[in-house]
What does this fold into?
Amino acid sequence: MVGKHLITRFASRGAFSTVGNAYPNYGVRAFSVSPIRRDDVDVTVEGGIRTITMNRLSKHNAITDQMYRQMGKSLLESNRDEATKIVVITGVGEKYFTSGYDLKNLIQDYNNRVPAGANGATVFISSLIECKKPLIGLVNGSAVGIGVTLLAHCEAVYASDQAHFNTPFIKLGIPPECCSSYLFPKIVGHAKAGALLHFNDTWTAQEAYEYGLVTRVFPQDKFKTEAWKLVKKMAEHPAETLLNSKALLRDKERPLLRKVFEEENSKFDVEVVGQSAMKLIASRK
It folds into this structure.
């Protein structure tokens, strides 16, 4: 049964702990006629479009461990959901798409000695790799950290002209993540990828478009209207055609991306990152 809004719920909250492990059993789906919000993530399915919205406006949509897990669950659910033709990832507000990983969560992982392969980010990134439905990034505001690197997994990226793109990994002792060590040189070239990932460059939306990361840029006051026109137009195409198109473009690389992500995780030092996060927070007080 599919109403105006199709909402996915999960019977369990399990998660895989390392790259390459079997995926969890998320249980059966249930349906509702209204959107659901869980762990600051809104998920709706309407007109063939599954929309995953980061909804933590007061924290600039900073992503917590549970937000990562919920988004990852929804991405995997889309693979089995005949009502989903395409998946949209966006954020609330106009200032930030997302400000990246919540620093307090990084510190908690450090204090609890949580391995890189056991955190929510691993669930989310692995789900991005495994998502079989076309992904669209609607960058409603500035993107930081994984808010930038996740875009390389998207088939299309539409951005507000007020958005900026920055990956402050070097400040936090974080190596390139979300397969950016492979995907970014491929998309924007080695020089620009290095400037962004290693040297903390910040790009405007226009620069991100010129470099090939962003598909279209719209004025802020027209962003939602114009971007959603394109999303809805894509959703008019046959589901099987969309599925096959993505498979032809992405399936050959999926085994390589799994390996790249595993290598990136092996370079992630929880102690270095945790201590760097604490220093950064202290410097802001």
About this structure: The radius of gyration is 18 Å. The chain has one domain: 36-283.
